[in-house]
Design brief:
Layout: H1 2-16, E1 21-25, E2 29-30, E3 35-43, E4 51-56, E5 61-65, E6 72-76, E7 79-84, E8 92-101, E9 107-119, E10 122-135, H2 143-147, E11 162-172, E12 175-184, E13 191-196, E14 201-207, E15 212-215, E16 219-224, E17 232-241, E18 250-257, E19 260-265, E20 267-268, E21 282-283, E22 290-291, E23 295-297, E24 325-327, E25 338-347, H3 353-360, E26 367-371, E27 374-382, H4 385-398, E28 406-411, E29 414-416, H5 418-425
Parallel strand pairs: 2-10, 11-20
Antiparallel strand pairs: 1-3, 3-8, 4-7, 4-9, 5-8, 6-7, 9-10, 11-12, 12-17, 13-16, 13-18, 14-17, 15-16, 18-19, 21-22, 23-24, 25-27, 25-28, 26-27, 28-29
Length: 431
């Protein structure tokens, strides 16, 4: 009997040696209206290649990405999707994401998910154990207490070593040729281009550039396990649409640098412009464009939107401030071309000059904008990146208590990455 039991245990261990294990560390209880950072550990063993993680969020919850280890992320119809073209090489890795509940929620809510991967050329689906999150007032830090926490520290990113630009050329009727030019300084290994098109368009491969092509209903992907070594290389495809007009295309370039995943938007011609942004949150299927709901505290400080960073915040007294939040109603002033600013802090609510003076000894004028759910404070406006970089160095040296000032970039008032701004303006990056 002992031998039989031992042999059975041996077979069980052998069978489960390569099983994937998911640890989803959701909080057991949360305060309504708060945002919590969640860690999820994926123990995948030797599993490699394509995989997908899906989480079903109950109505009233939203999920947003934090550190996703190279996955593409979307949140639509209460479904959060993390998709890896190839999994991280580590046997075990951890991703993080944010979960946020509506202010009016109350009670227990179940969150479940599925992790899909490929093993021996077969797709396997692993059910992630359902976890219950209780939303109840008084069980955790209030929104006001969360707002008092230290602001998010963000560091300036180095210029990317690989960029991609797009051009669209009419062929005939509603047919177009799309050309993607990739400039590569030093990147080797995995690379991917994902192009997302309108629903009424189809694609046809023309030049794959040595990539593996995947075409779905409204996407086309170029995947390299080893990107071409040339300084520049091109891929192209034909697009045919049933509706008139140049199609609107969004795309991303992904690659790995020193083992770390990097993703940047493809710049250049995109076809017809998107409709003017409203003040409601809208996320596309590709999660490439988002307009944030712009709210701020009701006080005598002028709170500026993403496109309005011209006017410095006037100093107000603490006595004049209230805790009531109301939508921003100021009309943004126009801002044209490429501009750079220095972000000095990001927080969850509006503060005045007294706060900056007392806490950071910072007395210069600053601007306020709402971006990605944060109230962000910037100072200065420059047309040259080098001038903004010099201002950032000066601010960092003079005010060491500020949480990591860094340069931000804008294109006609819309916040973009510094890499994109340098590419569009053809300016040089300075360390």
């Amino acid at each position: 009997m002992l031998l039989i039991s031992y042999f059975g245990l041996f077979l069980m261990n052998l069978f489960t040696a390569e099983d994937v294990l998911i640890k989803n560390n959701l909080p057991a209880m949360v305060e309504p209206g708060t945002k919590s950072l969640v860690e999820m550990t994926i123990e995948k063993g030797a599993i490699q290649g394509f995989s997908k993680l899906e989480l079903a969020a109950p109505t009233g919850f939203t999920i947003s990405a934090a550190e996703v280890k190279g996955a593409s992320f979307t949140f639509s119809n209460q479904q959060a999707k993390f998709v890896w073209m190839t999994l991280p090489s580590e046997a075990s890795f951890t991703i993080t994401y944010y979960i946020e509940s509506d202010i009016n929620l109350d009670g227990p809510f179940d969150i479940e998910g599925t992790f899909s991967y490929v093993k021996e050329n077969k797709r396997l689906d692993l059910k992630i154990p359902t976890k219950t999150v209780i939303v109840k007032k008084g069980v955790g830090p209030t929104p006001e207490q969360v707002a008092e926490q230290m602001p998010e520290v963000r560091r300036e990113e180095a210029v990317v070593d690989m960029v991609c630009s797009r051009s669209i050329t009419p062929i005939s009727g509603n047919d177009y040729m799309v050309n993607l030019k990739v400039s590569n300084n030093s990147i080797k290994g995995f690379g991917k281009i994902l192009e997302i098109l309108p629903d009424h368009c189809t694609t046809e491969k023309v030049n794959d550039g040595g990539a593996v092509i995947t075409q779905d209903e409204n996407t086309i992907k170029f995947v390299w396990f080893e990107v071409p070594t040339a300084t520049t290389f091109e891929v192209s495809y034909k697009i045919s649409c049933t509706d008139p007009g140049v199609p609107f295309i969004k795309g991303q370039l992904s690659y790995t640098e020193d083992g770390n995943p990097v993703t940047s938007e493809i710049v250049g011609a995109t076809g017809e412009p998107e409709p003017l942004a409203t003040t409601t949150t809208t996320t596309t299927e590709s999660n490439l464009t988002t307009t944030a709901t712009e709210t701020a505290e009701n006080n005598s400080q002028p709170v500026e939107t993403e496109n309005n960073t011209e006017t410095a915040v006037e100093n107000t007294t603490t006595a004049s401030r209230t805790e009531t939040e109301k939508p921003v109603t100021s009309i943004p002033s126009a801002e044209t071309g490429i501009t750079y600013k220095v972000q000095i802090m990001a927080a969850h609510k509006v503060v005045d000059k007294t706060y900056f003076s007392n806490r950071f000894s910072f007395t210069d004028n600053f601007n306020i904008e709402n971006h990605e759910g944060w109230v962000k404070y910037t100072t200065g406006k420059f047309t040259e990146y080098k001038d903004a970089r010099d201002a950032r160095v000066k601010i960092t040296s003079a005010h060491s208590k500020l949480p990591g000032p860094f340069v931000t970039a804008y294109n006609h008032g819309e916040r973009i990455t510094v890499q994109e701004a340098l590419l569009i303006s053809k300016q040089q990056w300075y360390k």
